[in-house]
Sequence to fold (305 residues):
Amino acid sequence: MTTTTDPAALSPRALARRRRRASVARFWRQYRAERAGLYGLTALALCALLALFAPLFVGSDVSSVTDAPGRPMQSPSAEFPLGTDQFGRDLLGLVIWGSRVSLLVGLLAAVLSVAIGTLIGVTAGHFKGWYATVMMRITDWFLVMPTLVLAIALATVMSRSLTTTVVAIGVTTWPTTARLVRAQTLAVETRPYIERAKALGGGHGHIMSRHVLPNVMPLVLAQTTLIISSAILAEATLAFLGLGDPTVVSWGGLLQDAREAGAVSAGDWWYLVPPGIAIAVVALAFTLCGRAVESVLNPRLGVSR
Fold:
């Protein structure tokens, strides 16, 4: 029994799978040519593995105040490589454990932000008219308003939890995505196959989901990787201002604890530097990956697809 590789002999579904595999392979070949993107991807993979297996490295009782293994504010030593906090807890374990919350909140907030922006951008670009005018005026209002101020206002009036942090970041950072997606949607809507789909009786839902959305997804993917870094920084800022969930450990929360403990004035650098470096490294890694994805998927940057 022999299997044929002739595309004409394949079913439409099998042919679509082959094209998707070829597209993924082509994307990976082009992505590997972006050296900065590979560095960012490697850093993210290490951080993700560290966060995923944190319970194996430090244990779930790392944040316990009553069972702290050291003395308060110990400087780095062989026993505690990053020193201890104001309660005597191991800062290395806290930084590793805090990566779980910071990465999770950043990812969920970015997904929510991109989902809202994509929905508004696609519908505003497709329907046009008064609907597009109203949506774009709302988008402009969110653009001119300081994002951090809006997030702080939402986090203040809502209960202090991770869900509140995700919502506060997600509903205040979508306007840029909405504008980019709307511009791409308007460009896609002018193509001939859209007119043919309309002539054949394709409805609004069919055109947006089957023709417009697949063409704007590369832009959405690149935008998501870029927004994640901003979302992680926003989560750290809210936690540093005392607006995060006080019952969980995050990098921003560690910085807020260090400020309350007087680590800045006392010169206890080991309380401030590790979580700050962790935030900077992850934000930079996501930015490098986002730029690499954008350069591969965006034809305007001169990268062949």
